[in-house]
């Protein structure tokens, strides 16, 4: 992954630090070992550029959110299971969700609660939410690509200035909650292009290119040193051949304002941005910050040309001795309610609801029975997701759990089925697409026999 960006505000052909585009291309070519502008343009010409721009926004909730407290309430269960919250009716008869989601309830006809995800690994990481596969499943040489890597490989960039597969995944104290996956056997050129680092940020100024801000690009020695460091790291990890890819991406991005403009929320209509609520840049313990405005950034990145956007949001692991499950829910749920409803409203108002799919989920669910700390422990037997957009048949619930929310009794769903549905939404052919791994073995987007959720098509 390459984490990028200073503030490329063009002024008379120059960046804000006074480095001209022509000069930067010259510096960049030297630093990257001879990559020239013609070489970049040739690569752009040869790359596949999709004409049908559909996209996926993958919102990961690190830590495993409680399915019962979110979108699968159990009002008829005993008090030690149903918890402190009451269900509310939505605008779709027969669908109820937690009372702390009134905005989503009012537009449930635009959502799809999935209540029966039943094949969670039980691991505290983002792996299944990024790849769809179990961590310990048999892996091809190079590993399984993240979902966005498949999209990037098969559909190519919409334009050279914005990578197809981007991420807003913060590096978290619990490192496995901040990993957007890799390109796997498809190669690093299709890895998620991560746009944020350990520090939360509210503007592009804090984003960096290999430790070099745009304000320091004129320091050729420092620039060379940064890329030398990357060369050593890449060589150690066997990725030296990726230099050309990173160089081309960096030059394309740093010599246009398109990506920077997408990341600059000051360019968003203030009334639209206000819908999302105010972000909190404080990291939630070892999780991600509550950067709810990143939901808006995800939409802006899609509009700029991204095909797949992954992001991690807040921290949802509340079962410790502090008994924070219900107090934290009262803090977190209303903000999530506001942000998700704003994102889906935006997509509909902009005519993107048929083209952009949204999935919101975590790695597993929570124990139906409340523990002695008034919280819920890990529960891989069942978890939930929320889907929207993508031209899907919204306003329906997929799956059903038993009276106590312990396991699925109707329509158990696999993570790969969700991804199969998302792939179909963006136009990928599940049955007709074979991609050969580094050993020459054909691989598929999902395991053979996995189909999209037909209820949604």
TrEMBL record:
Cited InterPro entries: Alkaline_phosphatase_core_sf, DUF1501, TAT_signal
Domain of life where this protein originates: Bacteria
Any Pfam family the entry gives: DUF1501
Protein name, as recorded: DUF1501 domain-containing protein
Lineage: Bacteria, Pseudomonadati, Planctomycetota, Planctomycetia, Planctomycetales
């Amino acid at each position: 992954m390459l984490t990028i960006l200073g503030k490329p505000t063009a002024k008379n052909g120059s960046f804000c630090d006074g480095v001209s585009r022509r000069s930067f291309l010259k510096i960049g070519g030297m630093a990257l070992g001879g990559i020239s502008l013609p070489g970049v343009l040739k690569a752009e010409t040869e790359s596949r550029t999709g004409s049908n721009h559909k996209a996926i926004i993958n919102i990961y909730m690190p830590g495993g959110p409680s399915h019962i407290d979110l979108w699968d309430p159990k009002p008829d269960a005993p008090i030690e299971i149903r918890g402190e919250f009451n269900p509310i009716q939505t605008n779709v008869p027969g669908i109820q969700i937690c009372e702390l989601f009134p905005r989503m309830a009012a537009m449930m006809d635009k959502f799809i609660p999935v209540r029966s995800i039943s094949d969670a690994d039980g691991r505290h990481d983002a792996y299944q939410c990024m790849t769809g596969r179990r961590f310990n499943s048999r892996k091809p040489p190079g590993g399984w690509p993240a979902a966005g890597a498949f999209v990037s490989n098969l559909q190519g960039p919409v334009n050279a200035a914005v990578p197809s597969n981007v991420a807003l995944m913060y590096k978290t104290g619990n490192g496995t909650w901040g990993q957007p996956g890799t390109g796997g056997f498809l190669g690093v050129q299709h890895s998620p292009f991560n746009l944020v680092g350990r520090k939360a940020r509210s503007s592009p100024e804090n984003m960096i290119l290999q430790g070099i801000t745009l304000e320091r690009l004129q320091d050729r020695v420092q620039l060379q040193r940064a890329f030398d460091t990357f060369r050593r790291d890449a060589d150690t990890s066997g990725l030296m051949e990726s230099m050309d890819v990173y160089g081309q991406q960096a030059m394309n991005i740093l010599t246009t304002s398109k990506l920077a403009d997408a990341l600059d929320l000051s360019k968003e209509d203030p009334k639209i941005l206000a819908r999302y609520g105010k972000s909190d840049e404080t990291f939630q313990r070892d999780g991600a910050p509550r950067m709810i405005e990143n939901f808006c950034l995800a939409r802006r990145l899609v509009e700029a040309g991204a095909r797949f956007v992954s992001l991690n949001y807040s921290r949802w692991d509340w079962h410790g001795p502090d008994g924070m499950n219900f107090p934290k829910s009262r803090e977190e749920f209303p903000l999530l309610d506001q942000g998700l409803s704003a994102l889906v409203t935006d997509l509909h108002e902009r005519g993107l609801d048929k083209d952009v799919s949204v999935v919101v989920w975590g790695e597993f669910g929570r124990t139906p029975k409340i523990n002695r700390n008034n919280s819920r422990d890990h529960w891989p037997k069942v978890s939930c997701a929320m889907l929207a957009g993508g031209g899907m048949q919204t306003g329906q619930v997929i799956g059903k759990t038993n009276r106590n929310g312990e396991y699925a009794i109707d329509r158990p769903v696999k993570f790969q089925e969700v991804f199969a549905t998302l792939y179909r939404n963006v136009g990928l052919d599940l049955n007709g697409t074979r991609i050969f791994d580094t050993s020459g073995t054909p691989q598929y987007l999902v395991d053979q026999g996995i189909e999209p959720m037909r209820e949604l098509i």
